[in-house]
Each structure stands twice: as C-alpha cells, then as structure tokens.
Amino acid sequence: MPRKSYYLLSLGCSKNTVDSESMERLLDQAGYRRMESPSRADVLIVNTCGFIGSAREESIRNLRDLARRKGPAQQLIAAGCLSQLWGPKLVKEVPGLDGIISTRRWMDIVDFIGTVRGRGKPEPLYHLPTDAITVGDDERGTMRTATQGTSAYLKIADGCRRPCAFCTIPTIKGTLKSRPPTLILDEARRLAATGVRELVLIAQDLTDYGSDLGMKDGLSTLLASVCQAAPQIDWIRLMYAYPGAVTDHLIETMVSHPQICHYLDIPLQHAHPATLRRMRRPANMDWVRRTLARMRAAMPDLCVRTTFIVGYPGETDAEFQVLLDFVAEMQFDHIGVFTYSYEAQTPSGSLPDQVPEPLMQERRDKLMQHQQLVSLERNQHLVGKTLHALIEGHDKGLSVGRTYRDAPEVDGLVLVDGTLPIGAIVPVHIDGALEYDLTASVVRSG
Predict the structure, then answer these.
(1) CATH of the domain at 269
(2) Residue 396 is part of which domain span?
(3) Over the stretch 204-231, which tens digit does the pLDDT of each residue have?
(4) According to the model, what pLDDT value does residue 3 have?
(5) Which of 212, 217, 387, 437 has its CA 20 to 30 A from that of 133?
(6) What is the CB neighbour count within 10 angstroms for residue 28?
(7) Is the pTM of this model over 0.85?
(8) What pLDDT digit, counting tens, does each position of 329-379 carry?
(9) Domain contains 135
(10) Are residues 196 and 343 in the same domain?
C-alpha cells in the first residue's frame, strides 16, 4: 500500500462532482494516490449529497458501509452537502466517522486529512466553518471542473440567493458567489487544449451569474467571452436557468454564437400560480409562455428541459391537473419529475396539508406517463433529419452518443450503427425514435 492514498466516492449532482474532482486534484498535488478500491486506501472520503431525503439516505448508506468495512489504520471522512447540513448529527447516524468537513471548505481537504491522521484520538474532528467560499481566493488555484470523456462541467458560481421555500441549497452553500470571469475563461482555454468538445456551464442558478460582481446580464457577457476564448470547443451547454431571468440579450447571445447549444434547462417546478406562490417561486406563467415562444421563434430547433415537483404541500387535484395541462400545452422535450421531499429546516416544512406519499407517487407516475407520449412525439419529428452526435461509447456493434438535444447523464441517447471513434462528433441520419432515445446511421460523405 502506498504511503499516502485515498478513495473518494462522489454522490449527488454534477456540481458535487466538480467539488470532488477539485479535492482530488489538491490531494494528487499533495502526493496522495487515488485508489479505486476502498480496501487499499489510507483515507476514505465520501462527498455526500444532502439536497433531498433520498439523497441523504444514499449518503448515510454508503458512509455506514465504509465505516463497517474500514480497517483500524484507515480514516473515514464525510465531506459535502450533508456534512454542512447535519454536522455533528452525522456522527450519531454513522458511528466510526473520523472527520467531517463542510462543503464550503472542500479546499481545506489536504490539511484536514493531515490533522485527522495525526491526532490519534477516537472522537471525530469537525471542520464546519459557516463562511461561504470566497471564489478566486479560497480555491487554492485548482480548476473548478469535472471531465467525463470529451465533455466537461465548469462551475461558474456557487451558492444561491433565491428564496425557494422547499430548497436547502442556501442553507448548505450560502448566498451566490460568482467566480471571476478571468478564472472561468482560463479554465475554458485549458479544457479546450485537452481536447474537450462539450463544455457544460453549471451553477445553482446560471442566470444570476455576476450579479454579486456588479455585472448586468452577466451570463450573456460571459458566454460571448467563453466562445471567443475557446473557439475549439464545439458545444457549450447551459444548465439551470431561473424562470424570469432569461433575457432578450441571453436569447440573442445563444442565437449569434454557433458554439452555444440551442438547449436550455429551466426548472419551473410547477404550473399552478397558487402552488408556485407557496413555493416562493415565480408564478407568472404568462411570462413562461411568452419567453419560450420568443426562444422557439428565434431558435426553431430549441430543446427545452425542465423539472417539476408533485405533491407539494397543499397541492389539490385541480392544481395538479393544471400542471398536466401545462405540460401537454408546452410540449417540453425533456422533463424530470420529483415527489416533494419534506425538509423540516425549510419554510415548506411548516406548511399545512402535507400530501400523502402514495398520492405523490401516483401523481408522479401519471405525469411521467403523460410526458412519455410527448417525448415520443417530439422524437418522432426528428426522424429523417440529420443531427450531429458526440460519440461516447460502444455496445454490441453500436456507437452510443448524444446530440445537442441531450445533456450528459440526465437526457436521452442516440444509438448509431457501427463502431465510431469515441470523442468524435459525426453527422447522423435519424432513423427511428423511442420514448427517450433515438436510433441513427452515419451520414457518409460523398
């Protein structure tokens, strides 16, 4: 076994993945070696997720499993969102933890591990400052990116200042902290130099980028700069736009820069104004209709992804029906549907008329079945068209990839006849449509 080694398990969303890879880079620079098996590592790290109940359960399950299996010379450290949210409560849930480090101080991981290993004491060590990350100063010079093949996530901000009543993110991450444009542009150039073909910009709220830096419509300005700084990158994708914050300038920027995918993830969460007001979310659905109409007029090939919560406290049958009708009306390309997760520390936790779990699940299933028909119809309209596919793998004589219409991990795939080079972007003819995926053949030149 190497003198210094670590095993890191990353749970949760792509933003957590960026934090995990940032910690890995710091550990690698400090002389630690990453191990694929926890049995061979000196230090075991779980970068937890604490966003909703199911994510917390997954984090606890993995921590307990490692705690049971770890040897006497190994240390187990909980990092990430659940560490920030629960703090010492984690020790009661997971006996055997040696250290807990907050998600706001991931950049202290090397020093923290050194302190944990050098103490020789049975009780766990806590590193849970409440101060938010100071981007550009506290990041220790490490890139805030996560690369998967020829795609990469680039975090442009952390935290959120939106008042959503159901969300723990401001409690966990703190308020919005935008990263300086110079850092983001430098990282985009460095990713382009490594051969990255798709760049996914992420934040809790992309459309709020730069407001804390005194920038107006900062995302549009940043996008134009990224396109200029890294012209080699083929696709630039936007994830997590806030309703009401998609400006005409942003639409113009997406139209005028071919690198920017005509794709937008805009979580709406519901469609009934009363439900949205209880959620403390934008409740002007006419704005949604007008904005999506403007975007689709400017970009007829626009692909829209959104997410909804069913079973929010007080959701009536009539409110749910409005949501069903809205999804049928708007014809979204992709949607994610989640049942409401009770969060005692959020304003929604004290709301009356909590919806029973079986009814929430019934509504989720009904909405997903409803969307499957919409998704299949949207995909069928693509049959006969030529799109470009980013090839990411092979399976039984097929190449597996994605078009600009599909974000990594959350959307569909395109299955292409033959074995094509991984990382290539190739023109394909869409031959068939499934509910979520497409089948295609290569367009041969000449």
Answers:
(1) 3.80.30.20
(2) 386-442
(3) 999 999 999 999 999 999 999 999 999 9
(4) 64
(5) 217
(6) 13
(7) yes
(8) 999 999 999 999 988 878 898 899 999 999 999 999 999 999 999 999 999
(9) no
(10) yes
